[in-house]
Design a protein that fits this description.
single chain, 141 residues, alpha/beta, 5-stranded parallel β-sheet, two-stranded antiparallel ribbon, globular
Length: 141
């Protein structure tokens, strides 16, 4: 999957913006010894101020709109968003819910987004999405 080495590690901040936790479990599975993404330099960090990528899972609920915007502003530039799961892309099974504010690109239209479809997506797909974001960020340098 990774055909070259990257210049530096990539740090990811994970946000559950309204997910059913299926995508969250798959992100955690990517960190387990079976996939062990930290050996590639992909690290989950606890603060958005240290992150290069924000991984959103689930559609954005009305309750999360202000928090999503604040988290996006806290991540230093250059940054990208990784939308994990079908619910984050289109609303999925919740698309007609009165409680949804919309997908990420409606909340933060200026953001560069990469999408990982699936319900939930497999860890391999999540890793591939992170690598695409990584290649984009290294292309900016």
């Amino acid at each position: 999957m990774i055909s070259k080495s990257f210049k530096r590690a990539l740090w990811v901040f994970h946000v559950n913006s309204g997910s059913c936790n299926g995508c969250d479990i798959e992100i955690i599975a990517a960190l387990t010894p079976r996939y062990d993404v930290e050996r590639f330099g992909i690290k989950l960090v606890a603060s958005p101020r240290h992150a290069d990528v924000i991984a959103f899972t689930g559609p954005v609920t009305n309750e999360m709109v202000a928090k999503v915007k604040r988290i996006y502003e806290q991540v230093p530039d250059p940054k990208v968003i990784l939308v994990v799961g079908s619910c984050g892309i289109s609303g999925g099974v919740f698309h007609e819910s009165y409680h949804l504010a919309g997908p990420i690109e409606k909340i933060i239209p200026e953001a560069k987004c990469f999408y990982v479809p699936g319900c939930p997506p497999r860890p391999e797909a999540i890793i591939q999405g992170v690598v695409k974001a990584w290649e984009y960020l290294e292309g900016l340098e």
